[in-house]
């Protein structure tokens, strides 16, 4: 995404208040919508990405499978598929889990807030490293939770909470599909 892309500014109830450029949204720390995607392997592992060192936010830190801002006029599902393609190099069927006000500390200590649209997917594809992602790893969710708890500085601040939501949804979906 570029700094000139147009994003919706949201209120805490999820209503669009106005539109601004990405640069303005970040500068003024507005609530903007984003898509967060967790891709699980058939073994039940979850893909994590190490953000490229050139990224503006959280460079070189471990993050969820894929994520990014929803641009004005784009549906959350479209954004999720676009972000997965851009960051992982493939697409798969995604399941919407929930939308929630996601609050986490920014690098400067300020409170950052996003209206996050959480999606999960299942794929046997292997993600491809690119200019946005330095590395990928597939890890059992419980192992990943333990590592995040032991080494929180290695992960984006919202990772653990988002992972727990995604894992619960994946387990529920997997249970429904087994029946």
Explain this structure.
The protein is of the alpha+beta class and 179 residues long. The protein has a single domain (6-178), classed as Nucleoside Triphosphate Pyrophosphohydrolase, CATH 3.90.79.10. It has helices at 22-27, 76-88, 141-150, 159-178; strands at residues 6-10, 16-21, 32-40, 45-51, 62-63, 66-69, 94-105, 111-122, 133-140. A 4-stranded mixed sheet has the order 6-3-8-7. A 3-stranded antiparallel sheet has the order 5-4-9. A two-stranded antiparallel ribbon has the order 1-2. α3 (141-150) runs antiparallel to α4 (159-178). The longest helix is centred in the C-terminal third of the chain and has 20 residues, at 159-178. The N and C termini lie far apart (41 Å).
CATH class designation:
Alpha Beta
Helix content: 25-40%
CATH topology: Nucleoside Triphosphate Pyrophosphohydrolase
Question: What is the CA–CA distance across the termini?
Answer: 41 Å
Find the CATH superfamily: Nucleoside Triphosphate Pyrophosphohydrolase
**Average pLDDT taken over every residue:** 93
Itemize the secondary structure elements and their pairings.
Elements: E1 6-10, E2 16-21, H1 22-27, E3 32-40, E4 45-51, E5 62-63, E6 66-69, H2 76-88, E7 94-105, E8 111-122, E9 133-140, H3 141-150, H4 159-178
Parallel strand pairs: 3-8
Antiparallel strand pairs: 1-2, 3-6, 4-5, 4-9, 7-8
